[in-house]
Amino acid sequence: MEADNINFKQYKTAANTKLQKTLLFCSLVISVICLAIEIGMFLTLIIMNQSLDSKVLYVIIRIVFPTVFNFTSLIIAYKVFKNKRITIEIKSYAVSLSFFTIVSVVSIFHNYFSILLVAPSFVFFIASIFGSKKLIKHLGILTIPVFVLECVTFMLDKETGPMVYRVLTLVCTMCIIVVSYNYSKQLVETTANQLEYIHKNYRTQSLLIEELKIEPLTKLYNRVAFENTVTRILRRFGEDEICPYMVVIDLDFFKKVNDIYGHTAGDEVLIRLASIMKKNMGGPRQAFRYGGEEFVLLFDDGTKESVLRITEKIRTDFEAETYDFAPDLHVTLSAGVAEYTANLSGKDWFDHADKALYEAKSSGRNRVVVFSC
C-alpha cells in the first residue's frame, strides 16, 4: 500500500503544480491590466491638464507603489515555484500570497468601483483549492490590515459618494469577507474529508486486488500478476532504454519429495524457496509462482552479471536448506535465464528462458543456464 500512497502524493503534487502555474499566470495578467489601466488614466489626466501635484501624486500612489508591490511578489513567488528543493506546500503558500498581494493592491489603490473592495475574499476560494486550512487562516489574518487600508483609501476618496454610503459599503464589504473566510475554511475541511474517504476506499480496493494476485501458499505473485508485469516491462522497453531479464526456475525431482515425504513436506520446500527468492530479490514483487514447482523471476533492468549472481545465490541458498522432516535431504533447482530483445512477444521471451531451463535439466540439473540463439 506504500506504492498507492506514493501515487496519491504524486497525483496531488502534479495537480497542485498545475494550479500554481495557472494562479501565477492569472496574477501576472491582473498586474499587467492594472498597470495598463493606470497608465491610461494618467495619460487622461495629462490631456485634461490636471495640476502637476495631482500628476505626481497619481504616479506615486496609483502606478509606482502598486507596480512595485505586484511585480515584487510575482518575482518572489515565481522563484519559489521554480525551486525544486522547496516543498509543494511552501510553493502553494508563495503563489497564494502573491495573488493575495496583487488582489489586495487592487482593492486598496484601484478601488474605482466599490465592488473591488471585496476582491480579497476571492483569494480564500482560490486558495482553498490547495486544501490547506492553515493557508486560509493565515490569509484571513493578513486580510485584517488590508481591510483597514481599504477603509482609509475609500473614506478619503470623496468621489465614492456620501459618508453614509461609504460607511455602509465598508460594512457590507467586511460581512462578505468574513462570510467568504468562514465558508472557505469549511470548504477545505469538507473537501479534505471527501478526499480521505475516496483514498481510503481506493486503498481498500487496491488491497483486495493485490490479494487476488498473491498465491496463498508461497505468498509470491501468481501467474496473472506475472503476465501483467511482463506486459508492463515490454511497454517500458519500448519507451526507455532498459535491459530486462527473465529467469524460469524448476525444482529438481520435486515429485519424489511429494511421493516419499508427503505433500505437506513438499509445501514446506516451496515455502522455503519462496522465502529465499523474496530475500534475494528485495521483496515479493518480481518473484512469481508460475505453477506447481515452477517459478519465475523478472528483472526490469539489469546486467547479465547481476542477474546471474542473484540467481546463483538463490540456487546455492536453497541447496543448503535443511528440513526437519528429512535432515539429510537437500533439494536443488535448475534455472534458465533469457534477456529480452526487441520484437519478442512475452510468450517468446518466456520460451527462451524455458529452453535454457530445459538445457539446465538436460546437462545434469542444479545449475543456471543462459539462453543463447
The proportion of residues in beta strands is 5-15%
Oligomeric organization of the protein chains? single chain
The SSE order reads: HHHHHHHEHHEEHEHE
Tally of strands: 5
Overall pLDDT: 88
Residue share in helices? 55-70%
Overview of the structural elements:
The protein is α+β, with helices and mostly antiparallel strands. 69% of the residues lie in helices and 8% in strands. It is built from eleven helices and five strands, in the order αααααααβααββαβαβ. It has helices at residues 2-47, 52-82, 88-109, 119-127, 133-156, 163-212, 223-239, 254-261, 263-281, 304-319, 346-362, and strands at 245-251, 287-291, 294-299, 333-339, 368-370. A five-stranded mixed β-sheet has the order 2-3-1-4-5, sandwiched between helices. Strand 4, helix 11 (346-362) and strand 5 form a beta-alpha-beta unit. Helix 4 (119-127) runs antiparallel to helix 5. The model has no long low-confidence stretch (mean pLDDT 88).
Please summarize what this structure is.
This protein is α+β, with helices and mostly antiparallel strands.
Summarize the topology.
Layout: H1 2-47, H2 52-82, H3 88-109, H4 119-127, H5 133-156, H6 163-212, H7 223-239, E1 245-251, H8 254-261, H9 263-281, E2 287-291, E3 294-299, H10 304-319, E4 333-339, H11 346-362, E5 368-370
Parallel strand pairs: 4-5
Antiparallel strand pairs: 1-3, 1-4, 2-3
